[in-house]
Design a protein that fits this description.
399 residues; alpha/beta; FAD/NAD(P)-binding domain
Length: 399
């Protein structure tokens, strides 16, 4: 057992030591912690459980996945099992409300016996053979191995013109906009043309915004249900053929990315259609922002590349996310020891980074493992592969 429990740690005490430190308590962090616990690996999980889901997803949001996507690598505490225990027919929760999945994650955490210390890691370093983490509370932790699951919150794409042209209070990325009541009778501009852009547009329309302008550079996506079953075979390959995606010829990797793009980006869920079929919603395909300035009276004047001029009160960025590990604050103490490629960490076939003992999972792993690891579907697979390697690494440190 660990030398002391997380609840009794104090910043004045010697550092608490754990064989495994898991940074982040979102889907990938919880899934990995549960798998490692089942394998008998002592651990400390630090983070706020499902924080991004609680704080950066609107309560009226629905998920694009079905009840077959879950967190348990053992296949026991699945979403289907949760619904069965609660007496909920899966057909009655399609599409799946985000709140229901958050409840499932809490249930999964309890069923798996994963304890989470509700703190944040301020800085991670590795001055010698062990990692050292300083927490926001001032507590200190040393660990033999670390699994970092930073999620997507640090990787929001912000076009340069936004900060140059607009005051901070006049715009927001979707990950910081979860309440819409303040936009009643307001005019809003949404930049982006994928699921989040149209879903935020629907939420604004539901709330009674006067105008919603959705501006995007491509054709309008089709409103058609996505078909994700093709991912199952790819997940099986990831488990059984080490490094298969990374070792694919570039053309084959691109073909998989195109297939994923077709389902996840070129389609929008059909349940959005009636919510967007309102006079207040305006779509501007094949357009981009060419000019933008705040004008007296509290409005924002926007010129589009097609010559259209708009006057709005607020700009919403549905511009997605791009991995840049230098933007993860707690990695400042080790970032110069990580090999990166276009911002992504270079990982081995078990998610281990170039810094021995540091594993990175979730969205940052998509370069080496495929786009499906930006979604919940990859959680059980990543947890399985990471735990297998953790066991070997920890056994070696004990020899």
């Amino acid at each position: 057992m660990p030398e002391s429990s997380p609840e009794t740690m104090d910043e004045r005490e010697a550092p608490f030591h754990t064989p495994l430190l898991v940074i982040g308590a979102g889907p990938y962090g919880l899934a990995t912690a549960a798998r490692a616990k089942r394998a008998g690996i002592e651990q400390l999980v630090v983070g706020k459980p499902m924080a991004f889901w609680h704080e950066s997803m609107p309560t009226g949001m629905f998920l694009r996945s079905g009840p077959d996507w879950h967190l348990d690598a053992a296949g026991e505490h699945t979403l289907i099992a949760y619904l069965k225990e609660r007496g909920i027919d899966p057909l009655e929760v399609s599409p799946l409300p985000v709140g229901l999945f958050i409840d499932y994650a809490e249930w999964f955490q309890k069923k798996s016996g994963v304890e989470v210390l509700p703190d944040l890691v301020r800085k991670l370093s590795k001055p010698d053979g062990h990692f050292e983490a300083t927490l926001e509370s001032g507590r200190r932790v040393t660990a033999s191995t670390v699994v970092a699951a930073p999620g997507i919150i640090h990787f929001a794409v912000i076009p340069e013109w936004v900060e140059q042209c607009l005051s901070p209070e006049r715009w927001s990325h979707t990950n910081h906009l979860v309440r819409f009541d303040k936009f009643r009778q307001k005019r809003c501009l949404i930049i982006g043309g994928r699921q989040s852009a149209f879903e935020w547009g629907a939420l604004l329309a539901d709330e009674g915004a006067e105008e919603i302008h959705i501006v995007y550079r491509h054709d309008s996506p089709a409103f058609s249900a996505s078909e994700w079953s093709f991912v199952d075979e790819l997940m099986d390959l990831t488990l059984t053929v080490p490094g298969w995606f990374h070792n694919l010829p570039a053309g084959e990797r691109e073909a998989i990315a195109r297939r994923f793009w077709a389902e996840g980006r070129l389609k929008l869920e059909p349940w959005l259609t009636p919510r967007l079929d309102k006079p207040s919603v305006h779509r501007w395909p094949h357009a981009s922002v060419a000019a933008c300035r705040e004008i007296p009276g509290g409005e924002i004047e926007v010129g589009l590349s097609n010559g259209t001029r708009l006057a709005v009160h607020y700009v919403i960025l549905a511009t997605g996310y791009k991995v840049d590990m230098t933007q993860v604050p707690y990695l400042v103490g080790v970032i110069d020891r990580l090999k990166l490629a276009d911002g992504f960490p270079i990982l081995d076939e078990h998610f281990q980074s170039s810094l021995e003992g540091l594993f990175i999972t979730g969205f940052p792993a998509t370069r080496d493992f495929g786009p499906f690891f930006g979604f919940v579907r990859g959680c059980p697979v990543a947890a399985t592969l990471i735990t297998a390697s953790l066991t070997k690494v920890l056994n070696q440190t004990q020899v």
